[in-house]
Write a structure and sequence with these properties.
Helix content: 25-40%
Bound molecules: zinc ion
Number of helices: 15
Number of strands: 29
Radius of gyration: 27 Å
Shape: globular
Length: 632
Amino acid sequence: MKIIFPPFSRVTIILLSLCTLLPVNNFAQKAKPKSAVPVSPTAAATPTPALQLTYELSFPQPHTHLYEVAYTVGNISAPSVDLQIPTWTPGSYLQREFARNVQDFVVRDSAGNALKWEKTDKATWHVTTNGAKEIRASYRVYAYELSVRTSHLDASHAYFNGASIFMYVKGAINQPLKLKINAPNGWQTTSPLALAPDAKGYFSAPNYDILVDSPTEIGMHRVLEFDTLGKRHRIAIWGEANYDEATLKRDFAKIVEQGATIFGGTLPYEHYTFILHLQPGIGGGLEHLNSTTCQSSPNVFKPAARYQGFLGLIAHEYFHLWNVKRIRPQALGPFNYQTENYTHNLWVSEGITDYYGDQLLLRAGLIKPEEYLQSWASALARYEATPGRKIQSPETASFDAWIKYYRPDENSVNTAMSYYDSGAILGMLLDIEIRARTNNVKSLDDVMRLLYENHALPKPGFTDAELKAAFEKIAGTDLTDFWSKYVSGIENIDFAQYFAKAGLRLVKGYTPSINDVQGQEPNRGYLGLRLKPGSLVVGSVLSGTPAYNDGINVNDEIVAINGQKIDAATFNERVASLTPATSATITLFRREKLLSLNVIVGKQVPDRYSLLQNKEADANQAAVRNGWLSVK
Ligand SMILES: [Zn+2]
């Protein structure tokens, strides 16, 4: 997943899951604990016939935002059945409590008699079957949150992300199922489940994981199609925008081809669906097994820099089809849909995916090497300006995603470091290191291929140790020191050392200012606070800075510096004009009180980085650089 607003993200699909294989008459028992090793469907005795699972989704009044779900469960032999709805959706690591949108639950036997049920926890409906072989549960789901992680229904379209809509029979998530969608007249359905439903109008899925990994767009959206590497690709677009259809298909195809090239030139799916929501005020994407949903502003197609950012989102989500949907940490599949699924490795699943998102654009010629270098230089300036990098390692950031990354607050900058950013940096460092050690014969691509060979679905995911071993095998060296410093640890990274191996120099300078004196290094004042956009209200105070040490707080509203009124537009210039190591009087409102604080002004550190080519690079360094930048 990629978050452009709040966090988004990714899901993994599980073809094999343990609890699936529970005999039907065990429904009322507690699910077996998750095992580290998926069990083959043939490994457990399942004498009881499989359940017959059929969903019917209707929305006769789309403007009410209410989906109507009828869930028929047949072939029951148990006295009771537990129906559950997920508390989270794979790819987005936050407890979203989808049950809160469920209403009007009723359950009947095949003769229409109401059956007894009770909620036994927030997401479980315990149904007494009363001897019925078949039950039909009906409920409605309110769907009016326009994000890739949820579902949205209004008069213009229906979009569902299955985890937020569909219940499952506890203990039976690995059983095959059918889905019928009753759409209003004139609306078409675009689902990754199949290019079209069967003759009777049903889509099929081999298990619940596939169902909820198949986001579906229903409405009067535009569908573009292109074939690449022998596979059909569809782009389903809800919303109007100034895109050129031929350009979009051509650029998406380039991304597809570059991704496939890394993994041997073939695509591990029969068809792939890009669902695009183009509406004001939304952004981000969520990956799926053979699809993605991406949201963006309608004006993202021009100018070129903005369009590159959009293609970066597409490439990130697309690359996930390998990295996290198939190659994934052991904890991310089989899923437990009722609780947090913890892993230390979102820095791989998200960060290295982010690294490859831009790499795919570079390799496809959709961004230029100099643009790629500047993007990295800016990313490193942001990284080094984040105090949280000294608190959260990539591994701890991954593990605490559920309570940190997906629940950001005003103190996040001080205590958290995005595993997207730190993971992409680790991917870049390791790519350069491997290329340097092998004279550019091997690269991070080889690590991804090795992980794919050994851990792609349906094989079990990788452990922490297996991940490190894969990098060491390709790099041909022990990476324990690297891991303890930068993966598990929070040590400062010597970027210059790594870029030197690629014949590059990281140069740190300053964003130009009207107060600069030609030929002199800027001597700018610095407070260490960030304002909320367009206001003078403090949004965050960076730890260890003058503002932090001298008592400026989040939500203080600054009104004057050294007795002079300030405004939001010129605030940064005013701060920069202060003389470092002198005292400044900051006047502010804190709640209803007017206060003046004396702050010892700091000195601004370089904030604008550049990556430049070292003209004296030797042959090996030049080979690494050209390989990394895809310069032929
Ligand atoms: Zn992602």
